[in-house]
Design a protein that fits this description.
75 residues; mainly alpha
């Protein structure tokens, strides 16, 4: 089999300017609230007899994650 040397090159990557994310501290707080809420919700769901409370806690924590996602999109 003959080895072919291609003259085509990848385009040089230009350095993208780093866009400062003004929502980063808010997003980090929302993510922490989401993670803690999810962990607490799962603990309540699996360790207690009342699973409805655990589901409600998880759903409320998911609202925080949705808000964080919206902030990431509108960055």
């Amino acid at each position: 089999m003959e080895i072919q040397n291609s003259t085509a090159r990848r385009p040089e990557r230009r350095h993208k300017r780093e866009v400062k994310d003004r929502f980063l501290p808010i997003r980090q707080c929302l993510n922490i609230i989401f993670m803690l809420g999810a962990i607490v919700g799962m603990a309540v769901y699996f360790l207690t007899d009342n699973t409805t409370i655990g589901i409600i806690i998880i759903l409320v924590s998911m609202v925080f994650k949705m808000i964080e996602s919206i902030l990431r999109i509108i960055r």
